[in-house]
């Protein structure tokens, strides 16, 4: 079972489609680094929505929601997206308000790709097909489960059997590690649910022999959390954080 913190670290990402109407087109996850709150998502989610239109939906403590127009924040603060085009990732700092009911992940909640093992229980968190069937007034995530099907350290990706649908892109892939230590007891203080990566796409694996009637295998593809940390800890990320700290002092 995922803790409430994991669900509060999830953020639907989308666009304002009309008066008082918001539509989810992807997902993101909140991260704490450089003493800043970051929204991390897939780069193609932002590009598909349009950098001038993309908005995030955040829970407020009173039960209402806040639609955060990210382009407005960038204009007012002189910011831009921190981008990793080869790995299809982006990140941006977002303002912290006292009435936000959100949580943020840190490095200790990440698992390196080298430690991700096929057969680990895995979950995707997102807004498949927008928010159809869910409460449209709240950023309610849909959690779908499966296992880690395989990994590619060379490509830096993880494959999962957890259902991956439109609206999962940019959302987290969470894996569960055995809470037992090698001696047989509980590994106290060590999180068992960990961020393995950010969902990017669905891969269709077909039968190379093209046997009649053999359906393709659907696997979700996630960029590893190593790439997320590399982006946030990059020189550009450090410079952006320093610029924000300097501007807040003036």
Describe this structure in words.
By secondary structure, this protein is α+β, with helices and mostly antiparallel strands. The protein has two domains: 4-105, Thrombin, subunit H, CATH 2.40.10; 107-228, Trypsin-like serine proteases (Thrombin, subunit H). Helix content is 17%, strand content 38%. It has helices at residues 4-8, 43-49, 70-77, 225-232, 235-249, and strands at residues 10-18, 21-33, 36-42, 54-59, 65-69, 82-84, 89-93, 121-126, 142-152, 157-160, 172-176, 193-205, 217-224. Strand 9 (142-152) and strand 10 (157-160) form a beta hairpin. The mean pLDDT is 84.
What is the topology?
Blueprint: H1 4-8, E1 10-18, E2 21-33, E3 36-42, H2 43-49, E4 54-59, E5 65-69, H3 70-77, E6 82-84, E7 89-93, E8 121-126, E9 142-152, E10 157-160, E11 172-176, E12 193-205, E13 217-224, H4 225-232, H5 235-249
Antiparallel strand pairs: 1-2, 1-4, 2-3, 3-7, 4-5, 6-7, 8-9, 8-11, 9-10, 10-13, 11-12, 12-13
CATH class of the largest domain: Mainly Beta
Morphology call: globular
Provide the CATH superfamily of the largest domain.
Answer: Trypsin-like serine proteases
Number of DSSP E strands: 13
- In helices, the fraction of residues equals 10-25%
Query: What's the CATH architecture of the largest domain?
Result: Beta Barrel
Number of domains: 2
Q: Kindly report the spatial arrangement of strands forming the biggest sheet.
A: 5-4-1-2-3-7-6
The helix/strand series, from N terminus to C terminus, equals: HEEEHEEHEEEEEEEEHH
Alpha carbon gap, first and last residue: 45 Å
